[in-house]
């Protein structure tokens, strides 16, 4: 069985010129592609302009002051003064109790905070701060240390 389209639905293949709708669609697609390309180029230029070489970064930049630069002896005391910088014996203790002990043992600290384990925190290193990460039950989850 063979079906034919009605005369008004037949398409002619003799003309290769695109219709107005096809022409508009092609132009808009090209325009969108060019705009996307311009956006990518601008992003790259912005990234390159705002990238500083390592020598241009400030010396006190947090990225250049990792915790391993601090020299500690085996007792957990800094070599320059006699206050502890780590409290491994506070693991499992309640957060409030740990905070009181840390403040008592190192009165030079200006900030001692209790934070739920897994919370987002800044990556800056501060010698006057201790973060106490606690589990859901309120006990210390990781070793509290200066930073």
Number of strand segments: 3
Strand content: 5-15%
Please state the average pLDDT score.
Answer: 74
Distance between the termini: 83 Å
Elements, N to C (H/E): HHEEE
Determine the fraction of residues in helical runs and give it as a percent range.
25-40%
Count of individual helical segments: 2
Strand order of the largest sheet: 1-2-3
| Poorly predicted segments | 54-80
What structural class should be given to the helix and strand makeup? alpha+beta
Radius of gyration using CA atoms only: 33 Å
- Give a quick account of the main beta sheet: strands, pairing sense, barrel closure: 3 strands, mixed
Write up this protein.
This protein has about 150 residues and is of the alpha+beta class. The protein has two helices and three strands; from the N terminus they run ααβββ. The chain has helices at about 20-50, 95-105; strands spanning about 110-115, 130-135, 145. The protein has a three-stranded mixed sheet with strand order 1-2-3, covered by helices on one side. It starts with 19 loop residues before the first helix and ends with a strand. Residues about 55-80 have low confidence and may be disordered.
